[in-house]
C-alpha cells in the first residue's frame, strides 16, 4: 500500500492543475476574417471603451470567440445576464441560447437553463464589435438557496439572486472530468508469487528380462504399383486490375455539386487531410477548400452544416471534441477566404454516424471525414 501511495502523491505533484478560465481567439473583422492571437481570459467581463482589446487588434471592427467548460457549483436554475455592444451569440453544450449578431447600442439579454452541480458543460461565446463603444459582460444569477413555502408565497416574495460575474473557478480550458481521469494513476499490479517447484520422485523400474527369440516371418513380395501420370499444372490467376486513380480536380468537382444538393442532402468533402489525431489542416487540403470557398462566396444564399466525423477507436468524448475542432477548422478556413459566417454551422458528431465497419481496419478510415449537409 505504501509504494502505491507514494507513486500517487508524486504523480499529482508533477502534474499541473487544470487551468481555469476560457480560451479567447481574437480576429480582425466582425466575422472572424483574420486570426490575430489566442490568450486565456479569466472570465468574460470587459469594457474596452475605445481602446484595442489586445496588441495587434484595432479598436473597432474585430471579433472574439471564447471556448471552454462551465462547471456549476450547485444544481438548479441559472439565468445568464448578457450586456453587449455590439453582437453576441452564446452556446451551452452546443445549444444556442442567445443569437443577437448585429450592430446595436448597449443592450441586455437573459437566458435561463437548469444545470447540475459539478457537471462540465461546453461553453462558447462569439462577440463582434462594429463601431464606437466596446463592451461585453456575461454574468449569471445562481439558483436561490431559499426554499419555497407558504411563508414566502411559494417563492413569489423571495428576493431573486442578483447577477454576478462568472468566477474563473467555475471555468476551465479543458473538460475537468477527462483531465482528472488522465491524472489519476492506476495502482500497480501485485507482484506474482514465486512458484514452488517439486522435485520429481524416482519411479521404480521393473527388473529387466531378456527378450524371447522370435522366429523370422517369411516376407511376401509386394506388387510394384504403376506410376501415375503427373497432374497438369494449375492455371495461374491473373492479377485483378488496380482501381482507377482519384482525379486531381475531385475537390473542384465536389464544389460544383454544392448548388445541386437539395435541402437535407449531404456530401462528403474529398481531398481533406488533417494531422494525425489533430485538427490542423495539412497544405494538401488548400486546393479543395479554395474551390469550395469560391463557390460559397459566389452563392451567398447557400447554407450548410459542416459535420466532423471520426471512427469509434478510443474515448468517445475525445473523438467528439476532435470532430468538432476539425469542423471548426474547416469553417475558419472558409470564412477567412470570403465565406460569410452565417453560411456555415460547424457540428462534431464523433463516431456516432459511421458509414463503414469500424471493426475492419481497411474500412475504418472512411468514417474519418468532413460532410456538408445543406440547410
UniProtKB/TrEMBL annotation:
Residues in domain PA14? 17-154
The principal localisation class reads membrane
Mind telling me which InterPro entries this protein's record contains?
Bact_OuterMem_StrucFunc, OMP_bac, OmpA-like, OMPA-like_CS, OmpA-like_sf, PA14/GLEYA, PA14_dom
Question: Pfam families from the xrefs?
Answer: OmpA (PF00691), PA14 (PF07691)
The UniProt entry, under SMART domains, shows: PA14 (SM00758)
Please list the residue ranges annotated as the OmpA-like domain: 265-375
Which protein are we looking at? PA14 domain-containing protein
Q: Which organism is it from?
A: Hymenobacter monticola
Amino acid at each position: 500500500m505504501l509504494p502505491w501511495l507514494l507513486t500517487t502523491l508524486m504523480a499529482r505533484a508533477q502534474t499541473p492543475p487544470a487551468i481555469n478560465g476560457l480560451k479567447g481567439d481574437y480576429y480582425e473583422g466582425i466575422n472572424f476574417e483574420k486570426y490575430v492571437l489566442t490568450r486565456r481570459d479569466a472570465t468574460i467581463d470587459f469594457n474596452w471603451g475605445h481602446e484595442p482589446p489586445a496588441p495587434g487588434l484595432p479598436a473597432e471592427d474585430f471579433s472574439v470567440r471564447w471556448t471552454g467548460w462551465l462547471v456549476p457549483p450547485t444544481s438548479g436554475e441559472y439565468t445568464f445576464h448578457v450586456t453587449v455592444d455590439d453582437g453576441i451569440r452564446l452556446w451551452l453544450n452546443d445549444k444556442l441560447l442567445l443569437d443577437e449578431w448585429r450592430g446595436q447600442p448597449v443592450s441586455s439579454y437573459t437566458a435561463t437553463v437548469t444545470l447540475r452541480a459539478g457537471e462540465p458543460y461546453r461553453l462558447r461565446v462569439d462577440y463582434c464589435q462594429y463601431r464606437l463603444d466596446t463592451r461585453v459582460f456575461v454574468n449569471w444569477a445562481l439558483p436561490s438557496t431559499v426554499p419555497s413555502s407558504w411563508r414566502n408565497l411559494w417563492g413569489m416574495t423571495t428576493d431573486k439572486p442578483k447577477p454576478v460575474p462568472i468566477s474563473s473557478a467555475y471555468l476551465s480550458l479543458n473538460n475537468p472530468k477527462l483531465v482528472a481521469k488522465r491524472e489519476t494513476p492506476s495502482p500497480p499490479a501485485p507482484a506474482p508469487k514465486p512458484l514452488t517447484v517439486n522435485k520429481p520422485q524416482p519411479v521404480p523400474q521393473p527388473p529387466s528380462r531378456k527378450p524371447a527369440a522370435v522366429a523370422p516371418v517369411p516376407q511376401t513380395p509386394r506388387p510394384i504399383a504403376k506410376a501415375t501420370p503427373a497432374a497438369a499444372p494449375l492455371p495461374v490467376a491473373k492479377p485483378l486490375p488496380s482501381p482507377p486513380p482519384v482525379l486531381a480536380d475531385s475537390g473542384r468537382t465536389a464544389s460544383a455539386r454544392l448548388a445541386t444538393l437539395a435541402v437535407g442532402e449531404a456530401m462528403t468533402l474529398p481531398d481533406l487531410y488533417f494531422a494525425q489525431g489533430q485538427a490542423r489542416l495539412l497544405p494538401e487540403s488548400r486546393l479543395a477548400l479554395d474551390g469550395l470557398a469560391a463557390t460559397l462566396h459566389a452563392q451567398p444564399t447557400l447554407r450548410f452544416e459542416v459535420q466532423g466525423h471520426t471512427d469509434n477507436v478510443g474515448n468517445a468524448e475525445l473523438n467528439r471534441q476532435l470532430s468538432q475542432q476539425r469542423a471548426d477548422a474547416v469553417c475558419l478556413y472558409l470564412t477567412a477566404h470570403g465565406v460569410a459566417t452565417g453560411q456555415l454551422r460547424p457540428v462534431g458528431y464523433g463516431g456516432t454516424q459511421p458509414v463503414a465497419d469500424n471493426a475492419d481496419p481497411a474500412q475504418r478510415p472512411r468514417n474519418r471525414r468532413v460532410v456538408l449537409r445543406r440547410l
